[in-house]
Amino acid sequence: MSYPTKFIFVTGGVVSSLGKGLASAAIGALLESRGLTISFQKLDPYINVDPGTMNPFQHGEVFVTDDGAETDLDLGHYERFTHARLGRDNNFTTGKIYYSVITKERRGDYLGGTVQVIPHITDEIKRSIMLVAKDVDVLIVEIGGTIGDIESLPFQEAIRQFKSDVGKENVIYVHLTFVPYIPTAAEVKTKPTQHSVKELRSIGIQPDILLCRTDRFLSKEIKSKIALFCNVDIDQVITAKDVETIYEVPLVFHQERLDDKIIELLNIWTRAPRLEKWEQLVEKIKNPKYSVTIAIVGKYIHLRESYKSLNEALCHGGIANDCKVNLDFVDSETIDESNCRERLKNADGILVPGGFGRRGIEGKTTAIQFAREQKIPFFGICLGMQMAVVEYARNKAGMKGAHSSEFDKATPFPVIYLMKEWFDYKLQKVQKRDVTSDKGGTMRLGAYPCILKEGSLAFAAYKKKEISERHRHRYEFNNAFREKLENAGLTASGVSPDGKLVEIVEIADHPWFLGCQFHPEFKSRPMEPHPLFVSFIRAALDCKRQKPGGSSA
Ligand code: GLN
Hints:
This protein has about 550 residues and is of the alpha/beta class. Helix content is about 35%, strand content about 25%. The strands form 6 sheets. It has a 9-stranded mixed β-sheet, with helices on both faces. It has a 7-stranded parallel β-sheet with strand order 5-2-6-1-7-10-11, sandwiched between helices. Strands 16-17-22 form a 3-stranded mixed β-sheet, covered by helices on one side. Helix 1 crosses helix 9, helix 5 (about 115-130) crosses helix 6 and helix 14 (about 360-375) packs across helix 15.
């Protein structure tokens, strides 16, 4: 394509949680389906340098990219909806921007000048946007927060300036707003949208497209009212109707001719969109033949956002098996031997996800023991894998009191521990870490290679020998206990190329019992479901069929 890169800036108004991330991802999907290459960037107004150290209860999941960046969960949506593969530069926070400006100031780069929000911070923001604008037809930049928040003002000012920098034919502003239906008046209300657009215009941004989040298609009258008050044409007002499944968003946007409008405004010529795959996907999700229930035994169960990619990956595993996956979130703090059977009786599969901190640890081990003994398919991810090793060591390999040294420094059998020295395949150098290492700075982060053992469950799922998966953890399987555990039946079926880091464990005399040190959920896509999730859901489905009186429907 011979165009310069075009830019779509997505802002949100009225309230948060309207689905700006999904809307941006869906726009990306539509443009990709028209043959354009796209990328994304998320600009977050908070001061943390990255979301890595933020509490999942507050912030939701931390999404990890191949290059090991800990990023906002919206990057997960972008990667799931498109072929864009993102990294460190695709997510900037206020903290990261200021950090870099202050570093430059200390270094003397500003030659004694007064360093100010405008132009220094705004210039830094624009430079950050340009970093990922290379080699793509369209860059979609989502601004976190809601218009009117003081925190995001520098980002808003920067994107306002951006239009004159790169030319007005290369930039559009998409504003996601809310059009509530008020039952007592039996009407949808446009006032919040009018106010939000007024706010946006007061900082100099005239939106080109209004995405109106609502529970019904907006009538022509409502659209023209919004158009009149917000200074846009009626075909620039798009209904962003609530949908049954998030994967329907691109289809609903297309029905509203959003992609036609975008390419017209940006003056791009493309082929017609090819959306058959999306249509088939939605059809499959809406009409599954079977269903299974997976119990997720974890700590962050009250905030579903904390397990965003995991929930999606389970759904993808379901799609591949023509199966709806019902999620039963179980608080691991409330599980013990006395109530475990009752609490997990509906589960066709049990999954223990990743996590940090000792809260609810014993409940997780109890659930794992139950899954192992009752031969219920079990999937342990990161901390879930580590606790599966602990459980096996304690109950099958005669290591009473075994634990991860993260939770018990004095355990006689630290089967999971901080590895002092290991070869880092990503950075191609030996890494050292110990208990005094900086919090956050010592994690194994991002994509690492792993070699699978032929004949294993993992090999059967992936159907290849070498894989690459994303990590986010500090602790590792302790090789001092490997032989003992392997002799007791816990196989290391995936290891690093040098054989020193155990990445996958599994047991043989069980329908499906597998733990992995990495987070496979980050690489699952609706159109390319992750092999481990496909295999796990298939096993859960088989388990359900075999239950007395069981049917899989
Ligand atoms: N807390 C464990 C570790 O740091 C597991 C981390 C995780 O599950 N992501 O190794």
